[in-house]
Amino acid sequence: MYGLINIAIRDLIKSKFGEQQWLAVLSQSGASDADFVRMRSGDDAMTYALVGAASEVLDMPASDILQAFGQYWTEFTAQEGYGPLMDAAGSTLPEFLENLDQLHTRVGMMYPDLKPPSFSCSDITENSLTLQYESERDGLDDLVIGLLHGLGTRFEVEVSVQLVSSKADTGVGSVFHVTWS
Ligand code: HEM
């Protein structure tokens, strides 16, 4: 994944747990400076290694790290100059979720090696929808759950997310039931 992702993981850990804990995670992960160059596309294994190292050093399940990272991502991207891109994707949670693929298409204009996920919405009601998540990667359901909560904060709604089925079990993408109030 692009260095931008690793930078966000670094900033999250530094800001929540401090420099010393970050240095321990860094050394355990085996990452080097090159992994923290924003526009450089690196091996996915390094990003997974950072999450694994954080889980060991901070003694937290990897699922909690992924969820915290997802939540942080919506703030981080807004701070890092992608606010207008986020604003253009919609002014309500369901509108934004429907435009996620378009958002990543735009991101792909700046990051040509991007391998983005794909999302689609169905069963849309006033306060719920079904979200289908497809990716060439595995094990990122908790990231999506965190992202959805981060978007809840952005749109000032209380979000709850239920994992209906996981790619880990079905091999064909994951499905979430999302409600908000
Ligand atoms: C302006 C805001 C955003 C930017 C700049 C951005 C950019 C990126 C980048 C660079 C990656 C790494 C992929 C790669 O290197 O191949 C990525 C992955 C991902 N993005 Fe976004 N993204 C944004 C917003 C969002 C939002 C709001 C969601 C909410 C669902 C989201 C969901 C994901 C997921 C789940 C992945 C993991 C990759 C995968 O599942 O295969 N992104 N994004």
Name some characteristics of this structure.
181 residues, alpha+beta, H-NOX domain, 4-stranded antiparallel β-sheet, binds protoporphyrin IX containing FE, 57% helix
What does this structure look like?
By secondary structure, this protein is of the alpha+beta class. It folds into 2 domains: 3-60, no CATH class; 66-180, H-NOX domain. The protein is built from 8 helices and 4 strands, in the order H-H-H-H-H-H-E-E-H-E-H-E. Strands 1-2-4-3 form a 4-stranded antiparallel sheet. It is globular, with a radius of gyration of 16 Å. The N and C termini lie far apart (33 Å). The protein binds protoporphyrin IX containing FE (HEM). Residues 1-2, 4-5, 41, 74, 77, 82, 85-86, 100, 103-104, 107, 111, 114-117, 135, 137, 140, 143-144, 147 line the site of protoporphyrin IX containing FE.
CA radius of gyration: 16 Å
Shape: globular
Mean pLDDT, all residues:
98
Order of helices and strands: HHHHHHEEHEHE
Uncertain segments are none
Number of strands: 4
Query: Which percent bin holds the helix content?
Result: 55-70%
Q: What's the level 1 CATH class of the largest domain?
A: Alpha Beta
Major sheet size, sense and barrel closure: 4 strands, antiparallel
Structural class given helices, strands, pairing?
A: alpha+beta
Small molecules (ligands, ions, cofactors) in the structure: protoporphyrin IX containing FE
Distance between the termini: 33 Å
Approximate strand percentage: 5-15%
CATH topology of the largest domain: H-NOX domain
